[in-house]
Amino acid sequence: MLNDINRFFEMIKKENIELYNESGLQHELALYLRYEKNYDVKLEYPVSRLFPDNYADLVKRELDILIKIEDKYHVIELKMPKNQNAGTPNAMYNIIKDVKFLEQLSQRDNFSDCYSIIVTSNTAFWNNNNNNLIYTLFGTNDVTIESIQTEQLPPFLQRRGGIELDRQYKASWNNYSDWRYYIMKIERNS
Q: Measured in whole angstroms, how far is the alpha carbon of residue 164 from the centre of its chain?
């Protein structure tokens, strides 16, 4: 799956496909996976359809992209934060929450690869002078997503609470036009 995702980004660079918002990215990637790779692809798929009696513990209720290949499910969670404003720490928090969701799914039967993909033109993600931990996770060239405690969050996010992850995840920023993106694989704990 990782090779397919990388080929998608190579294709959009080569064909100069405009990325303008998260929904557009979601649809472009889904179309590529469905028509170029012949995968069974679903968008915004409710977890209740996969786990009718056992989903209360999951931190989210819908999968951005669900791919079924043979008897295995693959999941992609996307974020495409754009504006450089007070929404940046909130977007970062939601990215960490997506990683938690992918961790939860990766522990379930029939789930294989899970990916968090971030595409952004918001330079605050990789070029900032803020010492708040949530900013430092996204680094200059590399991203390290790990647990974050309530007291490490900016005051306005503390009411949402910390997020405990099973492990630390790393990825590198890649360039695309005036955007940057990373692809982070979330794997099952042994």
A: 16
